[in-house]
Amino acid sequence: MEFKQVLGRRRTIRFFLPFRPVERAKVQKMLEAARRSSCVGNVNNTRGIVIWKEEASEALIKAITPPLGYQQMQTAPCFILWYHDTDAYEIEKWIQDLNNLADTRRIGTDAEQTKGDIERMLRPVFGATWQQMAVAPLAFMDVGNAVCQALLMAYDEGLGVCLMSSPRLEQVASLLKLPETAIPMCLMAVGYPAESWEAGGQTVKAPFDSLFHEGEYGKPFKQDVAVDEDLKRDGFIQEPAPLAWRDAELKYLEKALGLNSTIIAFPAPPAADEDGGSE
Known about the structure:
four-stranded antiparallel β-sheet, globular, two-stranded antiparallel ribbon, 11 helices
């Protein structure tokens, strides 16, 4: 697919084909896409653990299950736990990563001069602040960049994914033997879509001018209608949800996959009566 079509056809997939395994090669491509993403100082702080559902323990599946994830957890054959490793920012490693960028001509124009500048000017600053920078917004943004590239690779390979909220950290850390420097970020369900690629239509987003500004806050970035038409022609802007046949598709999926209509992964607590008891 062309790049704009990959972006436009991307949907959060919640219904997967549970009987169709995901090829290991495709997961490797997703991980490679994450590895190649942009990150400050080329510290490579993004980490991932691939979890094959058929090989995972019941305790692990329970631990990684988020509240809002019934269909995904029931049907996806593969999951990736993405996490940030603060140890990637350790000062000596960070300085070496910067020196490597100088040696490979990715920063500066004179490698030796650049490495000298790094040692004289950046080492003192980073040496005093690397622990704070390891948990600063930019570090977490870099994980987001990596996960996004893995997501787009998945769609280009014919897969679907769903990003879910961070699971119960203490249990997951223990079961997956994560280091103390790990900060789990999100769980990604991966598989072949059971639903159509349209998944009911393109998700409706907030108005453009409510999100983006120009010059200062309160001055909306003005849209050009001609640009929107170009994006429609290129397959990026598509028919919004819900498409007319979506309800019928959902009923079919529930029956074919043996699912309930709920979106909640855990049983709801019993309702309390007027006296405070349970019904």
